[in-house]
Amino acid sequence: MACLLANLALSQPAYCNAETSLTASAETSTDGKFVLSWQLPDSVSAELQQRDEISRDYQTVYSGTDTASVITGLTDGDYAYRIRTVTAKGDYSNWTAPISVAVRHHPLSRAFGFFAVGAIVFLATIVLIVLGASGKLGTGRNQEPTNG
Length: 148
Prior knowledge:
CATH topology of the largest domain: Immunoglobulin-like
Structural class: alpha+beta
CATH architecture of the largest domain: Sandwich
Number of domains: 2
């Protein structure tokens, strides 16, 4: 019924496809990477669009027959995506409802903190290896000579 009403409102009718839905691997990404996936009926392709944060216009970021797309390299922000199917004849379905993904990278202070902890562990490991190899690292036990 919703598809019929949508077609009445459009100058160019869209064909209806209830099977197409869009999902994201995460609602919030801390590394600017996530996967969008969708289902496609046989013999159709998909057109995936991303909304520009500034102009609020949608731009096509993928067209084809794949059923997933890895999105990478995004800066902090809120991104919206929608998808529609296209038949071989060029008939378009209605757009899906947009889904949103927030990109919030880890703060730089946290990255430097992880780096510092890693450097301390690395240096401590090197010191223990050098001391152990030189024999300066005792076991802490009193060793008595054995008479044999």
